[in-house]
Amino acid sequence: MGSNKTKKTKVGKMLDNVRPQLLLSDLSHAASLERLGPKLFERIYWRALTDEPKIAVTFDDGPHGISTPQILDLLDKFKVSATFFLVGKHLERHHKIARRMVSAGHEIGNHTYSHSLLYLSTKKRIRDEICRTDTLLRNIDGAEPKFFRPPAGFFTKQVLDIVEQLGYKTVVRDVYPRDPHLPGKKKIVDRVVQRTVAGSIIILHDGGNTQRVDRSQTLEALSEIIPSLKNKGFEFLTLSALLSN
């Protein structure tokens, strides 16, 4: 009886160490559905159509009071331009950080006001989510938001229609290492470096929409991703610069 109890305890500890979200994240990355995007949806930018070694790194769900300034410091250190897709409710609290982005030469885009899943929303809600954040973005000196990224990358024809009616272009990505799921610095680095090609749009996260936001792995990985890709000859551009080529 004692032996069986010991075995159950060991099994229980093993199960406690299994993180379902991380497992799903690994499976999602292996399936690489974003790589099929360009073949299925022509109204969305998944990556730039270029053979030149030019790419864009983008960040979602900010601004965040702690992690975003750290990422901005790192981008400045490596002289890299990036594009940040901002959530309106976070932008209201961290307007100065967004101003810093623009003054540093980074681009800012629209990621809705509350990070709600638009494919479940009414037309009015979709418009309100985009327009409310659009007003906030345009109150930042020098900002001219052109791109919209749907939360979680989910969209419908209705969402795309409204995005276009409001003058935005929808951008998703072709390289996504699932960094919010905290898979570890090494996995984040390997996933980005191995899958980045000419014209790639990389998505990472500087903020979040939960009570606890931990972007330490993203920050650590970024400090290796940038020099690794630069050593491969890649040039980092804002989305506007990349997609205009």
The total number of structural domains is 1
| Helix content estimate | 40-55%
* SS field, number of helical segments: 11
Run of helices and strands = HHHEHEHHEHEHEHEHEH
CATH architectural arrangement: Alpha-Beta Barrel
Low-confidence stretches: 1-8, 10-18
Query: CATH superfamily, please?
Result: Glycoside hydrolase/deacetylase
What share of residues are in beta strands? 5-15%
The biggest beta sheet reads: 5 strands, parallel
From the N-terminal CA to the C-terminal CA, the straight-line distance is 71 Å
Give the averaged pLDDT, no decimals. Answer: 89
Question: What overall geometry do the principal axes of the alpha carbons give?
Answer: globular
Total E-strand runs: 7
SSE layout and pairing:
Layout: H1 2-17, H2 20-31, H3 37-40, E1 54-62, H4 67-78, E2 83-86, H5 88-93, H6 95-103, E3 107-110, H7 123-138, E4 147-148, H8 157-165, E5 169-170, H9 185-195, E6 201-205, H10 216-231, E7 235-236, H11 239-243
Parallel strand pairs: 1-2, 1-6, 1-7, 2-3, 4-5
Helix pairs in contact: 4-10, 7-8, 9-10
Task: Label this structure with key terms.
245 residues; globular; alpha/beta; five-stranded parallel sheet; 7 strands; 11 helices; 11% strand; TIM Barrel
